Amino acid sequence: MSSTTWTQAALASELRPWQGALWRAVEAQHRVATARLVDTLQEQALLEDLLESSKPAAARPPKHYLLMTPFRYPPPHPGGSRFRGASDAGVFYGAEQRRTACAELGYWRWRFLLDSPKLARLEPLPQTLFEVRIDGAAIDLTVPPLSRDAADWRNPADYRACQRLSRNARAAGAGVIRYASVRDPDAGLCGAVLAPACFAGEPANEQSWFLAVTRERVRWRRDSALFAEGFEFECAHWAGAGPAAIS
Questions:
Q1: How far apart are CA 173 and CA 170, in angstroms?
Q2: Nearest to 183 by CA among 81, 79, 61
Q3: 128 within a domain of the structure (yes/no)
Q4: pTM across the whole model
Q5: Per-chain mean pLDDT for the chain
Q6: What is the DSSP string of 86-121?
Q7: Residue 37: inside a domain, yes or no?
Q8: Residues 6+ positions from 89 with CB-CB distance below 8 Å
Q9: Does 90 map to a domain?
Q10: 157's torsion region: left (phi>0), alpha (psi -120 to 50) or beta?
């Protein structure tokens, strides 16, 4: 079955309950920015609460801003993202492993560097990794019969097949799309959450990392008093792939 024949009815027959956890990597610069404007942690918390209350209204029931941000705003680029067209509802992207989440965000920071010819590198900047539990009806693009169209789902530059699939999946009642990462060289598993109702809890296991980017590689590092860990990605794996959109 080709991607063009994955109708609402066909996808409804592939829905399965899915419970698991997804990691997401996001910039931590909002805390750096607000910290520059205040003198104490209490004042910073108040300022962030005021900023949060001024944002567009989130879906109900209310969720943590780390979860709701993808649902509050339109896609950042005209072409949308892998499972979200320009006029589609929001999508929360996460990965089942931290390394995969780091590969996904690292790729887009590398793309930003390539689009900035005056920059030689991106110096280490703070990032936040967090985990959230998911519980919802899912379609899984990594197993038959949907995996037979893996070439469409894993296309690094053309999202049209994925966006058509996502629209029909929503109509069929899917809350999650499980798929293999295109940016992780190891093709780690990811989840696209289509509805806030699928969040089964608040963000947990928040971790502070630093991300540094050159034109050759992306490095993630996390230091603590007890250990140091990191991930590194060679950018040659990404060369020539991907549109100017965020997935």
A1: 5
A2: 81
A3: yes
A4: 0.84
A5: 87
A6: TTSPP-EEEESSHHHHHHHHHHHHHHHHHT-TT-SE
A7: no
A8: 71, 170, 194
A9: yes
A10: alpha
Residues 197-234: tens digit of each pLDDT: 999 999 999 999 999 999 999 999 998 778 889 999 99
Count up the domains in the chain and report the number: 1
Instruction: Report the sign of the C-alpha dihedral through residues 134, 135, 136, 138, in that order.
Output: positive
CA distance 189 to 214: 26
Res 235: pLDDT: 96
Question: Which tokens in the block code for residue 33?
Answer: 């920015």
Q: Tell me: the pLDDT tens digits for 148-197? A: 999 999 999 899 999 999 999 999 999 999 999 999 999 999 999 999 99
CB atoms within 10 A of CB 223: 12
Domain enclosing residue 80, as ranges = 3-29+59-237
Question: Is 52 inside a domain boundary?
Answer: no
Question: Could you read off the pLDDT of 22-79 as tens digits, one per residue?
Answer: 999 999 855 544 444 445 545 555 655 565 555 555 455 557 999 999 999 888 777 8
Cβ pair 121, 198 in contact under 8 A: no
